[in-house]
Amino acid sequence: MSSATLQLGEAAAQWRMARRIYAIYQPLARAAHLPSCPPLDSPVDRPQPEALEQAHRWLDEMDARVQAAPLRSLLQTTQLATEENLHDLIVRYLAREPKDDSLRDRLDFLLVQFFSHCASPVLHQGEVALEDVAQVMEPVLGECSTDLPAWLQPLEEALQALHRCGSLRELLDQGVLQRGRQVKVSAGPMFFGSAPLLAFVRFNFLVRRAFFRLLQGDLHAIRHGLDELERRGIETLDCTRAQLAAQEPASHLRQICRDWREAFRAPYRAGESFRQLAEIRAAVEAALAAVVPEAGPAPADRLQPSAASEESPAPPIVAPQKAAAPPPPQEEPQAQVPAEAPKPAPAAKLEPSPQPSPRPLVLEIEEAQDRIAEQLLKNGDKKSISVTSIEIGGAKLLLSSWEVAAFVEGGDQLSDALQRAVAARAILVEVIAACRKQPAGRASAGSDEAAALEKVIAAAKAEGATMQTAVEDARNAKNIDAAVNLAATAKRLQASADEARKFLP
Prior knowledge:
This protein has 19 helices and 4 strands.
């Protein structure tokens, strides 16, 4: 092959890489009212020297301007975080000088994002050794030593503390996020060494995974506690320690829980600290203890981390329009919390009401998500995940590996779509199982079962439409794996809805 051919091939490769990075940078430039790059805007490939030089100059200028916050937000709320795009951006950043704090923070995020994207489902649920990280990260970091310098020992100590955390409050009290951040900041230029990068990727991944599990546990505990309190006629709680009212309506607390489902895509450093959620849980448990002293802690407290269930860097950043959200894992929460302990709700409101009515047959999509996540997170040490079976209302629901990953990993819009579709399928399975127990083997006209079937079939139809949109978005983003997985889940949801229709009167 001639040198001219080699140069042409190299120019074409550089042009393709420039286009991929431009796809990431161009929305950031537009949001900052910065000029675009005409050669890269053109739909025609122009890998000529002058066009390449102009493209490189534009990308260099953006390299110096881009900060971790908007980059996180963009990659967590779009389909741009493909393996190829992440690879190119990481390689570009690793070659940049000077190695300053801004570059450190961007690499810190991109590397764990790459690992999370490329790691097998086993690593998303099981143990994660440094050798595992080295293998996954080899395409961007090359061969790396797994012998860590002594100055990284505080990271391992922080992970040991993380392993003992059973709630967000414990995570905050242990200072895991702050300890990890201190090690990163104090590392200086040593942060960019290959072995330290591996250690920080592992730390971030385990913190993110843990945060997801603990958040799910707190949300489940709050929802379960509010159910019990409302059954006893208690409609307000003292949530002053959570920066809320002394008579905060339970309905508003439920809305906060729903909003927190968006926490994984929240704006960087924006919104309420997740300290608020920990304080809401404390308020709910204090109110419960006042009316049911023998009840003990909410069930989510039993979601203790297994040996294989640690966690990873704080929640992903979300679109600017989203509201309250937790700070990233590198930072200790900023919200100031009053020193006084939560006050129980007024005694007059703590009178137990008559025996609670039976739980509704049809659960909300979000409640089904909670139940599925709880089962999967409890069984996080199971290594066989090509197909996972969970129990829903006495019936078994089979989940594929990508559906399991959507619950135990989470953090993006595709995961949200998958979670809701699986939850809708779970509700269908539950209602179908109830109908099969009827004397006629199906719902009778005008019965609760018939009404439940019609409701869940309608919900499944709505989620199916959302899934089709997600499939198209993934295809347009050339994320073929995601499109195939989403389409398969959508097909299973449709099949369950079709089966449910057979039980209608």
